[in-house]
Specification:
By secondary structure, this protein is α/β, with parallel strands linked by helices. The chain contains 8 helices and 7 strands. It folds into 2 domains: 174 residues, Rossmann fold (3-Layer(aba) Sandwich); 41 residues. The chain has a 7-stranded mixed sheet with strand order 1-3-2-4-5-6-7, sandwiched between helices. Strand 4, helix 3 and strand 5 form a beta-alpha-beta unit. Helix 2 packs across helix 3 and helix 4 packs antiparallel against helix 5. It is globular.
């Protein structure tokens, strides 16, 4: 079943799927759509419960989102794609590449993490406090329930062991900002455990694709066109 019913695409050629982060939608990648579409068939999707894709009734987890990506690719007859994921989108891409290596050509993980310990405490502590508060009010408030689900992705997911990253077979670029909310040591750990992965640390925070698009797009294009 394919629940991902909202996406935009631009360009022709080899598919390049863009996966946004937690609480965002496909518009995050506006500057990547313009830069990449002369070279690829770029497809930006709204993940389950984000943007204009419905929440549905399935579990609200990173692994479910990876299953949703498979459903989307099958429904749109995309046998194999390059996949670029940002933040939770990076975590989705990482899980997908582990579960379905034959469906991934090249993989870009931007600001991904294996578990909550990879996030700097100055960011993670407020996330966990917000999650606890939202859960308290979730039964009485649809807004609180939605917030609890979104924050829960950053508290309970993706829970990947470093040793599992060896399942990834696609050439991989791991990329992050030098002032990212993800610890640089954690980003380097991810890159070191994916066979043959390349690492790129760029000036900027967690949102380098949006705030430093020139450097980000150049790094990604260079990797994709190797």
């Amino acid at each position: 079943m394919n629940i991902v019913n909202h996406y935009i695409e631009k360009g022709f050629g080899e598919p390049l799927i863009l996966l946004h982060g937690n609480g965002e939608d496909l518009t995050y990648f506006k500057q990547q759509m313009e830069a990449f579409s002369p070279h690829f068939r770029v497809i930006a999707i709204d993940t389950r419960g984000h943007g204009n894709t419905p929440r549905g009734v399935a579990p609200f987890t990173i692994r479910q989102f990876a299953d949703d990506l498979l459903g989307f690719m099958d429904a749109n007859k995309i046998e194999k794609a390059n996949i670029l994921g940002f933040s939770d989108g990076g975590n989705i891409a990482m899980i997908f590449a582990m579960k379905h290596p034959e469906r991934v050509n090249r993989l870009i993980l931007d600001g991904a993490n294996l578990d909550p310990s990879g996030v700097k405490s100055s960011f993670q502590i407020p996330i966990e406090l917000g999650y606890m508060v939202a859960r308290l009010f979730a039964k009485r408030s649809p807004e609180a329930r939605l917030k609890a689900e979104l924050l829960g992705l950053m508290v309970n997911d993706p829970m990947v062991g470093p040793e599992e990253l060896g399942k990834i077979q696609a050439p991989t670029l791991v990329i992050a900002g030098d002032k990212d909310m993800i610890k640089e040591s954690h980003t380097r750990l991810i890159a070191s455990r994916i066979p043959g992965a390349k690492l790129k640390i760029l000036p900027g925070d967690h949102f380098i694709a949006n705030k430093n698009p020139k450097s980000f797009n150049e790094a990604v294009l260079s990797f994709l066109q190797e």
